[in-house]
Amino acid sequence: MHEESPLRLCFVLRYQYKQVNVRMLVLEAKLRGEERQYQALDEALRTSRFVRNMCLRYWMDNRGLNKYDLNKYCSVLAKEFEFAKLLNSTARQASAERAWSSISRFFDNCRKGEPGKKGYPKFRKHQTNLSVEYKASGWKLSDDRQTITFTDGFEAGSFRMWGTRDLHFYQIEQIKRVRVVRRADGYYIQFCVDVERRENHEYQNRVLGIDVGLNHFYTDSDGNIVENPRYLRKKERSLKRTQRRLSRKKKGSKNRVKARNKVGRKHLKVSRQRKDFAVKTARCVVQSSDLVAYEDLKVRNMVKNHHLAKSISDASWSQFREWLEYFGKVFGVGTIAVPPHYTSQNCSSCGTTVKKSLSTRTHTCKCGCVLDRDHNAALNILRIGLSTVGHTGTQDASGDIDLCTGEETPPGKSSRRKRKSSK
Ligand SMILES: [Zn+2]
Prior knowledge:
The protein has helices spanning 6-18, 35-61, 67-80, 82-86, 89-112, 231-248, 254-287, 299-302, 306-315, 317-331, 373-387, 399-406, 410-421, and strands at 24-32, 131-134, 139-141, 147-150, 157-162, 175-183, 186-194, 207-212, 218-220, 225-226, 291-295, 334-338, 362-364, 370-372. By secondary structure, the chain is α+β, with helices and mostly antiparallel strands.
C-alpha cells in the first residue's frame, strides 16, 4: 500500500493550523464576600436565568424569531419587570444570547439529521450551576486587581478574589467577558481574556493514533497504555450514601438544602478530578507528537447502553477529545477524527479482516501479526488518519468559548445522567 510520508503531511497540517487562532483564555478565581453580598449575587444569577427562560418562552410563542429579536426583547423585559432592570444591560444581552445558542444548537442538530435526540431547548430550573455573564460594563477591578466590584442594580459590592495572580499579565481591554458562576462550594469569577494563545511545539518526529477503551483510558499506536482513573467509581459508594440521605430529608426544609449541597460538592470534586486528568493527558499527548488521530465516536449514542454507560461517562472521552483539539490548535499540532469503522477488526499490518468478539483481547492474524487488540486498533486509526488528512476533526476557533463553559458544566450533566439511569 502506498502512503504519503507522514512528515510531508505534518507540514501540510501545520500550514493549515497556522490560520486557526485560539483566542480565548479563561482565568478563574473564587469570590470572597459577606453573606449579604452573596445574596445580591444570587439575585443577579436568578435574574439572568429568568431572562434566558423568558427569551426562550418568547421564541416558542413566536416562531421565526432571530437572535436580534431576542436581544430587543431584553429591553422589553427590563421595562416590564423591576428586577430585570436592575441587571446590567450587557448581562441581559448575554442571557438572551445564551437562549439563542441553545436554540441554534437545536437547529444545527436537526440540520445534521443524525439519529438521536435533537436537544429541544429547555427551561433552566435548577438552583445549582447558575451563572451570569457581563461584558465591558457592570463590573470594575481595583488597581491592584485583588478586588472586583459589581456596579449594577443589585449592588453586590466588592469581593476579594482568590487565585488571580495571572490577571496581572493582561490589559483590562483584553477582558471581554466576566462570568459569575455558582457552584456547590461557593461563588467563582471567570475572566475570558482575548489573547492569542500559541505555544511552541518542538518537532517530535512522531505521529500517533489513539484508541480509547473501557479497559484502559487509551492505547496508542506505539503500544503505550494509559490507565483509566475511574474517579467516579471510587466515589460512588460515598455519593450513594449522601444521595440516600438527601432523599430522606423533607422537601423544602433547610436540612434538604444542606444535604443537596453535600451531594453537589461530591460531584464537583469528581468533575474537577476528571477535568484535571483530561487536560493533563491531552496536553501530554499533543506535546509528544506531531499529529494525533482518534476515532470520531458518538459518545451520546453509546451511553444508551446502560452497562457501559457509567464507565463511558466516567472515562469522559468527549472531554478529553475537546482538550486534544484545543491543545492541537494551541501547539499547532494536527488532530484528526477518523470514522470508527472496523478499526478493531482489520489487521493493521496486512489489512485483512480478523473477526473477533468484544472479549477477545489479542489480535492474531495469518500474516504473523500478533498484537494487543487496542494496539492494533490504534495502528488502524493512525493509518486512516494519515490517509484522510484534510478532513480534520477540529471545530473552528469560535468553539473555544464553548469549551470554556463546557468545562464547567459536568457536575450538572453527570447528575442529570445519574438520575436518568436510576429510573
Ligand atoms: Zn495481517
